[in-house]
Write a structure and sequence with these properties.
This protein is an alpha/beta fold and about 290 residues long. It is built from eleven helices and eight strands.
Length: about 290
Amino acid sequence: MLKRNQQFHLPGGRKLGFDEYGAPNGLPLLYFHGTPSARIEFTLFGDEALLAAHNVRLIAPDRPGSGLSDFQPSRRISDWPSDVATLADHLELDRFAVLGYSGGGLYAAACAQALPQRITRAGIVSGTAPFAVPGVADGIHPNSRNFMDLSHRKPWLSRLILRLMGLMTYLAPQKLITNAAAALPAADQAIVALPEFQAGFLAMIREALRRGPRGAQHDTRLMVTAWDFDPRQINIPVFLWHGETDQNAPVAMGRYMADAISHSQAVFYPGEGHLSVFKKHADEIIGALIR
């Protein structure tokens, strides 16, 4: 099954966009993309064959301001579970698993905390932790950290850089890819070198910025400033997968979340980075969430 570019109206009229992949009647799994990113991100790491093998119906929504979803002024992290519950109602899903990658990990955690009666299992791959926790963000590559910090210190400049990134996907795609790879460890650079990954990455950035840079800038700001929910209050099973050489979300972030969530199971991979964990272990990750 592949159902792309779907939209529906939330209460109040705001539109939410989403894609569906995998087995039409399979076990439902909602996938939350990173930032800047969009609903098509999963295709960088997995495919229809993987989902069919596990009998999974994967639903990937765009967060507000990304892809096909309308921007939501003054959005908080804790607003997302309501959108997710409404999407699940729209699709007639009673219970479902959630999986968040990178900057989407905190949204998987927020849903686990807010919707314990509906979520069977939650997974976080290469996820972030609250940046205010001492030491957890120390290992972020300086280029990446500067970009993240602009989202709240100089939001206008953050939006300008994001707009330029979007233009570069058309005017100088290889330069954009080279610049992105420069802030990655060797394991991730090997993934970025794959032609199919490069094509997917460029498409993902274009889709993330389809409605302009506000959504990605606001999403990044929410990630790096104080979270408005506490992961220590999660009371359902959460699985975490993290590379020990990750320079976008350092392994200290994964270890913090594993310690903070009482019902967590974490796997840490020596030598793996931010991208390589999901690319190499997608079968293991999907399997654990629907087992």
